[in-house]
Amino acid sequence: xxxxxxxxxxxxxxxxxxxxxxxxxxxxxxxxxxxxxxxxxxxxxxxxxxxxxxxxxxxxxxxxxxxxxxxxxxxxxxxxxxxxxxxxxxxxxxxxxxxxxxxxxxxxxxxxxxxxxxxxxxxxxxxxxxxxxxxxxxxxxxxxxxxxxxxxxxxxxxxxxxxxxxxxxxxxxxxxxxxxxxxxxxxxxxxxxxxxxxxxxxxxxxxxxxxxxxxxxxxxxxxxxxxxxxxxxxxxxxxxxxxxxxxxxxxxxxxxxxxxxxxxxxxxxxxxxxxxxxxxxxxxxxxxxxxxxxxxxxxxxxxxxxxxxxxxxxxxxxxxxxxxxxxxxxxxxxxxxxxxxxxxxxxxxxxxxxxxxxxxxxxxxxxxxxxxxxxxxxxxxxxxxxxxxxxxxxxxxxxxxxxxxxxxxxxxxxxxxxxxxxxxxxxxxxxxxxxxxxxxxxxxxxxxxxxxxxxxxxxxxxxxxxxxxxxxxxxxxxxxxxxxxxxxxxxxxxxxxxxxxxxxxxxxxxxxxxxxxxxxxxxxxxxxxxxxxxxxxxxxxxxxxxxxxxxxxxxxxxxxxxxxxxxxxxxxxxxxxxxxxxxxxxxxx
Length: 589
Hints:
By secondary structure, the chain is of the alpha/beta class. Helix 12 links the parallel strand 10 and strand 11 (274-277). Helix 14 runs antiparallel to helix 15 and helix 19 crosses helix 21 (451-463). It is an enzyme of class 5 (isomerase). Keywords: ATP-binding, DNA damage, DNA recombination, DNA repair, DNA-binding, Helicase, Hydrolase, Isomerase, Metal-binding, Nucleotide-binding, Zinc.
């Protein structure tokens, strides 16, 4: 079945055990990273079990994408949601009663409506699959209150197994998921969180718009997502990208629903290259060929960061994950978290945010930090992050530290980073003259260094606890007791050479093992077929499958079945067209 229908020659590690447990009527809890094969864990049992499998998901767009893909594989799947007409819903319910549907996607709200429950009891259910299961947990990073009622399933269908699936959940969240769903001695599978095809890069945020433009300029024709922390920033960044000639669009909850649907559909069909969005975008994107994810602002948790970066490279091909980090955001975000009235919640969220800051500050392999957080420690560098590819270089930064801290002290410890840098660089600004800071002994002593260089130095001093930012006084810089021995030359200080340009990291790509010219031709064919069938291109074949074709160069139907992602149904539908292009290409070689 795996090969015949899905086109894969083997299960990924652990999938077979999950499926076996499910077939044996055991509850299961599945933790696999985005792109790690969660869907297959319930899709295969759904075809083997006698009655319908109900997949509960909060993501309406994901329902349609999943159903389109399953239908293309010849699997009887459907969905019911509020975006359908009553006639469409009635038709689907009718198919359910006659046993014509193997997999049905619904929202948690729909599932627990009494009339729908009556239909399920009449039709019979073999399995409930709860996707995005972290939404069940009070401690989950994306808490959704509607999910809490799903604990009723066990009472309503006591003999039907439940499979809970999520991409990220720590030990407390895993326990909470099992408790909320009343899982009975579940089989728990925790897959590896190592997405080796993702390259993690974290840059100091100097001039983020220029940094973003520089980066996306290296991503020719690639699709990507840029995450921003506010709606206003989303709109601004999207507009700036469009002005520079990039095919970009904004997406956030403040836009009309019709706009959001249009953006999402165009992105799915490769008609938009870049979506600039808040975190409201992405969970429902079943798009395997996202080649980059940029965090314009610092996420609040490693779980969120991992989930959002995980939307890149789901097809297994190389993808870039870039984040801009400004240490000045840290105290502001901590204060926002602390404003919550729930003390237990504050404690957990601060702990998670501190872990996120530690990742951004890390001078060791980014992947090591991530995997250690998810209890999958490793002692070797990954070779595919900014730290491994361009290790930080240390130098004796004592003099620079003394200059910066002396400037802070002499100006009264009442000014922010920008003003201190202006003094050090000898700015002629009005504010400098108004405060007579051009008369300080530290005025202009750092003019040989750029603004961004000094910004990096001061941030490092903050990271090392020599300087604090007083958020109650406009983030004014204040010296700590740890600064005293450095200022008195009683001890020295090692700093990292500021990393002002990491563009070369994005240009270091893994060797291409397939024919790029043929790959482009196959993408063109896929696009025309997708438009004819009115589905996103990846529903026809993923980029990974096209890359495998361009590598193996199949010339017969039997050869084509050896390509990863090509099953018998897709071979019947599309095989002749793709074989024709490949054979013509081979004859030209």
